[in-house]
């Protein structure tokens, strides 16, 4: 059952309201200069029906990143069933911009549709001039994290820096050994040492045994608990979400890599492939019994991506965890927190 969502005083869901008296200056200028019309022609409407939200998503999404796909975002909806809240700007009865949000009751906050987990977030608009209007009509509080935009745009709208993401371009690489040549002798030695530790145990690699998601979750929880920390896999919604990431995939290709050593599941990685990018989504490793497995797996996945033949880039997602910033290219992301 979807929970009721608090509404801005000027806005009721499913009812289009005029924007002429909201951000007056911006609405007037954009209507005149961009659309050759009047601010009276601008209306704002909130869509909460999932099927209509999907139509808006498919209309406006740039479809460049995994996070631009409806299938991936919808998997999070299937896990959490938060109320969609797509703020749509209409000009002469045609949608010209959409801010795809949902309301998280636990946090009492609006966030991107699909939760804070999403990256490469962009403003769905036919023209950049609509972005200031979108920001001014946001409900409070709203957190827009992991925004992908130019530093110039971030500075213009006073976005704060978010955690960066980390990528590896595969152009010019024939194997993981080519990747290793980028580093100092000491770092190369350490990475190769870890790889040999695992190779000496004759690991077995299994592709797309998706039932191993349960092992991925277990291994991840065990590792976090050993450090005295909680794991997101303790959240039933997270389990349902990534089951759906696998089962609902049509726009992208899920891929699971399991490493077995002596008949024991030592590590599991969940990957998604979309438009030439290899996204490393989730992992679980038995580091206590198989030290070096993390570095071994990173190098093995580089080779896996190269063998697939049509992969140009690997996306290791946000947060360094103490190692990504040492090995990979950093890409800035931004956030905007609209509070009361």
From TrEMBL:
It comes from the Bacteria. It holds the Pfam family Acetyltransf_6. This is BioF2-like acetyltransferase domain-containing protein. SUPFAM superfamilies: Acyl-CoA N-acyltransferases (Nat). Residues 185-324 form the BioF2-like acetyltransferase domain.
């Amino acid at each position: 059952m979807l929970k009721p969502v608090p509404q801005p005083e000027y806005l009721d869901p499913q009812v289009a309201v005029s924007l002429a008296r909201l951000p007056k200056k911006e609405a007037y200028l954009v209507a005149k200069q961009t659309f050759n019309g009047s601010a009276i022609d601008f209306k704002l409407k909130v869509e909460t029906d999932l099927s209509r939200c999907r139509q808006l998503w498919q209309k406006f999404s740039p479809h460049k990143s995994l996070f631009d796909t409806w299938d991936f975002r919808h998997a999070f909806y299937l896990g959490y069933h938060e109320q969609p809240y797509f703020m749509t700007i209409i000009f002469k009865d045609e949608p010209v911009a959409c801010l795809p949000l949902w309301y998280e009751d636990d946090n009492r906050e609006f966030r991107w549709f699909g939760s804070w987990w999403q990256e490469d977030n962009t403003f769905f608009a036919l023209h950049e001039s609509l972005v200031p209007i979108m920001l001014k009509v946001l409900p409070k509080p709203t957190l827009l994290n992991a925004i992908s935009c130019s530093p110039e745009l971030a500075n213009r709208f006073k976005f704060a820096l978010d955690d960066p993401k980390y990528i590896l371009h595969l152009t010019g690489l024939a194997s993981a050994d080519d990747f290793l040549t980028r580093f100092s002798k000491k770092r190369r030695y350490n990475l190769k040492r870890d790889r040999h530790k695992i190779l000496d145990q004759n690991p077995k690699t299994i592709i797309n045994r998706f039932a191993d998601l349960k092992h991925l979750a277990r291994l991840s929880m065990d590792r976090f608990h050993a450090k005295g920390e909680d794991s997101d896999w303790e959240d039933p919604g997270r389990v349902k979400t990534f089951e759906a990431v696998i089962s609902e995939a049509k726009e992208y290709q899920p891929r699971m890599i399991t490493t077995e050593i002596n008949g024991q599941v030592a590590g599991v990685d969940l990957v998604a492939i979309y438009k030439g990018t290899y996204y490393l989504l989730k992992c679980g490793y038995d580091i206590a019994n198989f030290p070096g497995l993390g570095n071994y797996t990173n190098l093995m996945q580089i080779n896996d991506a190269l063998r697939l033949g049509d992969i140009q880039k690997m996306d290791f997602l946000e947060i360094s965890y103490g190692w990504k910033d040492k090995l990979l290219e950093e890409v800035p992301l931004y956030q905007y927190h609209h509070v009361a």
